[in-house]
Amino acid sequence: MATFLLNEGGSGGHMFHPFNLPSINTGRDLLEFFYKAAEFISRNPEQAIPSDSTSLKVDGANTAFKLVRGPTGLEFAFDRGSMKPIDVEGITIDRLTERWSQDHGMVAMGRIQLGALNRALPKIKNELITLGFLDNKGNPDSTKFINAEFCWKETNAVKYEEDFVALHGINQYYEKDYKGIHRPGAIRPLEKDEKTGKMIPTKSKSTEVQYDESAMESLREKVLPFFREAVGPKNPEGFNVYTVIPVSLKGGEDLVSKINAKLEEELSIQIKEAQITEWNVNESNGIATLPLKSWLSDSRTVNPRGHFIQVKEGGKKGAMSKEIYGRVLSGIPVESIVADPEGWDVAMAINGALFYYAIENVGATILKALTSPLGDMVTDKMAHEGIVLRNEELFGVKMVKITGNFITTGSGGKFAQDRGSEEQLPLSPVEKSEEPEQGDIEGEESDAQARELDEGRPYRVALVPGAFKPPHKGHLYMVERLAKIHGIDKVLVIISRPLKEQRALPSGKIITGEESKLIWEQFIAGSDIEKAEIHLSAAASPVQVVYDFVMKDPDSNNDLVAPEGSEVYMGCGDKEDDPKRFDDIIRKSREDIAVKVVTCPLDVKHSAEYASILDSSPDIKKTMPSVGDSKKDSNELHASDMRFVLELATKNLAGLEC
After folding, report:
1. What is the pTM of this model?
2. Residues facing 400 on adjacent strands
3. Distance (Å, whole) CA 235 – CA 229
4. Residues 575-626: pLDDT tens digits?
5. How far, in Å, are 208, 308, 345, 495 from residue 316 at the CA level?
């Protein structure tokens, strides 16, 4: 009897980090997971079954292909999941250049994949019927698609040891109507809106569907010869085809012993400056040093997911955020991180760091012991992104990912080259700004946007709008941080033209948009930022700039409108309510783009040199706007101070030096 499973990839799928598993609520639960995972991985079955497997986490170009009836009969077609008529109808091999330009990477990939599938079509009709793509009368169900990943050394960022296609599973699109275009599909189920608590139709593009596992394996075997025949100067051996790329233990490795050894390593956390008795701290220096296993076995170690910490400098940070983890593990006393050193946040910050540390380091230990048909998981020169554990009965969810060091380095699936060399940005994006998972179906960018397609991801642009009257280094600080987001293609600084409340120098002179642009250009020229562009907008307010960018129809000739299928990052400050300002923008944005809010802590201060210049001119300092305002810290950056300094620069050497 055929066995059934839910597909392991796809736009409706989700891979959980261990700390997000519903069953992991304490440190002891996490320990149990590590041993459970070790036992599961160590089975080394002769044949990998997708629904019960340890497999390689693949990083290729996401593709989705479905079966359609064209002018000459049945054929395969791409579908990028957008509401473009050509996507809904299906991008057949002869229509690839209607969807993309001739030199676009998707055209070359499409000719290889669709060509091989179409040649194999006469031999796989029985499998297509069993999998639900054809009915018994030969009519295609074009609402369903095979969720795949195309890995080709010619275009792929990750240079695997061979070229291949990974078939992750089957999804079905949900029905949708948009601007007179109807996409047929499954009826959208209701889901609870996290903000309002009301039940609303799901916003997901597609859903996983059950399929016959033996039929999928049979399909893979039958299409393989046709992909092997897809040879060329840049792919002389053609392409392999996988449903699962199995991962197994290297010969002679004892995974449980390696995990035990890692758990016995000591970890030190600086909790207070001195004189504390909790957590078995050395009272002389405020440091707690315990084996990792002892930390996790402590009854006070709980999973802090969902908990936000009020930090000393203002605002809140997720207890499980990379920023809290980095600060705690860097040796900063926990009591100096949180706003209330006597409160619950101290323990939750420690818990967040412990969970992150354990999952990263035990995960890395696991990966080092594993190998796959595409090579060892970790070598001296490179490392795969991670593994995926699939067994819903054992783990409570369909997919759990173990990524080791990649959980913090965020390398997006590329092989890590000298992983410790890249400075990581401690951003705290809201939950919906997570990186797309393996197999997510993404829209493509405008053809006018030059970017590498081999990463299989949308065009990524960060938006920094404002009147900037004038720009100051606090603004530059945000641009610098956004420019370091992994995979960012461009940071757009857009200057609005306010009609009211125009910011003037004390003399009454208005700072024009052109002058703001000139200052920005000087800032960028003196920085290491390579991806920033400065634009003037006719919009009267920064808010209108944003609405125009995310709501107007894509236009390849207009840089002030979001490219089709793009990810738009909005930087905001770290005050508690700052991200909420974007709720309406996210709700009203075009359906083909994803708006992501990234929190950038704005804790930059004036330099010591600036402070010294002011201290040497007390008569000037006392007239600074922030000095006379009890609600402002004169060490922080304020536009009013900058206008004062600009005016002063025309009259006084001290102003010019500032």
Report:
1. 0.59
2. 16, 389
3. 10
4. 544 556 677 788 888 888 888 877 665 555 666 666 677 777 777 777 777 7
5. 35, 6, 11, 29
User: Of the candidates 577, 574, 408, 544, which has an alpha carbon nearest to the alpha carbon of residue 477?
Assistant: 574
**In this structure, are residues 427 and 324 in contact, taking their beta carbons and an 8 Å threshold?**
no
> Amino acid letter at 454?
D
The tokens for 339 are 């706003």
In order of 70, 281, 359, 407, 495, the CA distances from 30 in angstroms are 52, 23, 8, 16, 49
Q: List Cβ neighbours of 443 (8 Å cut-off, separation of 6 or more).
A: 80, 81, 82, 458, 564, 565, 566, 592, 593
Task: Name which of 256, 265, 93, 80 is nearest 183 in CA terms.
Answer: 80
Q: Is the dihedral of CA 435, 441, 443, 448 positive or negative?
A: positive
* Segment 335-362 mean pLDDT: 92
625 upstream amide cis, omega within 30 of 0:
no
- Between CA 279 and CA 596 the distance in angstroms is 38
Residue 295 has pLDDT above 80, yes or no: yes
Residue written as tokens 């019927």? 129
User: Which residues have C-beta within 8 Å of that of residue 590, sequence separation ≥ 6?
Assistant: 550, 551, 553, 554, 562
As a whole number of angstroms, the distance between CA 485 and CA 583 comes to 21
Which helix (H) or strand (E) segment is 571 a member of? strand 567-572
For the chain, the domains span: 1-58+246-424, 61-242, 452-599, 608-657
Structure tokens at 438: 């393996």
Q: What is d(CA 78, CA 63) in angstroms, rounded to the nearest whole number?
A: 7
**By CB neighbour count within 10 A (0-12 exposed, 13-18 middle, 19+ buried), where does 168 fall?**
buried
Q: How many CA atoms lie within 13 A of 98 on its CB side?
A: 13
Q: Is the dihedral of CA 641, 644, 650, 655 positive or negative?
A: negative
- Residue in this structure with the two tokens 């916003």, named with its chain if needed: 203
pLDDT in tens, 11-52: 335 678 998 898 999 999 999 999 999 999 998 777 778 889
Tokens of 450: 């030059």
The amino acid at 179: K
Q: Quote the CA–CA distance of 374 and 216 in Å, as a whole number.
A: 22
Rounded to whole angstroms, the Cα distance separating 295 from 299 reads 9
Q: Are the C-beta atoms of residues 48 and 244 closer than 8 Å to each other?
A: yes
- Class of the CATH-defined domain 452-599: alpha beta
Q: 96 to each of 81, 91, 92, 233, 363, how far by Cα in Å?
A: 15, 6, 6, 21, 41
Supply the Cα-derived Rg of the chain in whole angstroms. Answer: 27
Residues β-bridged to residue 91: 78
Buried b (16+ CB within 10 A) or exposed e, 583-602: eebbeebbebbbbbbbbbbb
Question: Bridge partners of 460?
Answer: 567
Which residues have C-beta within 8 Å of that of residue 113, sequence separation ≥ 6? Answer: 63, 65, 76, 78, 148, 150, 165
| φ, ψ for residue 307, nearest 5 deg | -90, 135
Per-residue model confidence (pLDDT) at position 411: 37
| Distance (Å, whole) CA 279 – CA 301 | 10
